[in-house]
Design a protein that fits this description.
Elements (H helix, E strand, L loop, with lengths): L3 E5 L5 H4 L11 H13 L5 E7 L2 E10 L12 E9 L6 H15 L4 E6 L9 H6 L3 E6 L3 E7 L12 H5 L5 E5 L6 H15 L3 E5 L3 H7 L7 E5 L2 E4 L5 H9 L3
Parallel strand pairs: 4-5, 8-9
Antiparallel strand pairs: 1-2, 2-3, 3-4, 5-7, 6-7, 8-10, 10-11
């Protein structure tokens, strides 16, 4: 008989449960930093919930109040979904996780739930599952980003910043802008560092410390990772060393 269980990750069960991503490499820097980051965010209202099938992880969702979220988006009184992923498809697990977030938004008297999507990468949740669950698109940004919302009451819609070109103009040197929100960012950074070293390009890494910083300088709505060189966005997701070198060579 199949057993389904929702498990919320909290500080007390972190050592045993841990985050979903990179769990096969619990000693990696990315995994360790992610778990530390989660513990530091729980008192801000961030929630991390895994769905378990027969005591094995089947997927997870991570969301936070907009005033503490890790996406470059403006709005008031919303919950923001950072991540949604399921490894067992066709059983409605993604919908169950979305419903979990919506129910909490209702209980906390929020205006609704929002999510940032992008069809060009798996680093953001898939748009289709949210449209099936009655989210609507309210804004878009360069590089394929879209902002979806599920409203629970009449409220001003959330929106993206509109000065993306201006943000890029301040980055001429090769720069990585990042936070520990995603455990794969450490691997992504290493690949850019290797590519830069091979090409003899100096590199600066900016670790975003506050949401205000993220809102002000993030090159995309994704918020937690961006690579910029000569005022051009190189990537907002992980590249292989080869792919990074190819993109950098185009601007050298």
């Amino acid at each position: 008989m199949r057993t389904i269980e929702m498990v919320q990750i909290v500080e007390e069960n972190m050592a045993e449960a841990g985050c979903y991503c990179l769990r096969s490499k619990p000693n990696s820097t990315g995994y360790i930093n992610k778990n530390k980051w989660l513990v530091e965010r729980f008192n801000e209202g961030l929630k991390y919930v895994k769905i378990m099938e027969n005591n094995k992880p089947a997927g997870f969702i991570e969301y936070a109040p907009i005033e503490y979220c890790s996406r470059a988006v403006y709005g008031e009184n919303y919950l923001v979904i950072h991540c949604l992923w399921v490894n067992i498809t066709g059983k409605g697990y993604a919908t169950k996780l979305i419903e979990q977030c919506i129910q909490e938004a209702k209980e906390r008297n929020k205006a609704g739930v929002i999510v940032v999507t992008n069809p060009d990468t798996s680093w953001t949740p898939s748009k289709e599952i949210f449209m099936k669950n009655n989210f609507i698109k309210v804004d878009e940004a360069p590089y394929g980003f879209e902002l979806l919302v599920y409203k629970l009451k009449h409220a001003v819609s959330p929106y993206f910043p509109n000065n993306w070109d201006e943000r890029l103009e301040s980055f001429n040197d090769l720069t990585i802008v990042r936070t520990p929100q995603c455990p794969f960012i450490d691997i992504s950074t290493d690949n850019i560092v290797k590519a830069a070293n091979h090409l003899g390009i100096s590199l600066e890494i900016i670790d975003l410390k506050t949401r205000e910083e993220l809102l002000r300088i993030s090159p995309t709505p994704y918020g937690v990772y961006g690579v910029i060189y000569k005022n051009k966005l190189i990537s907002f997701h992980r590249l292989t060393v080869h792919s990074a070198m190819k993109r950098l060579k185009e601007l050298v």
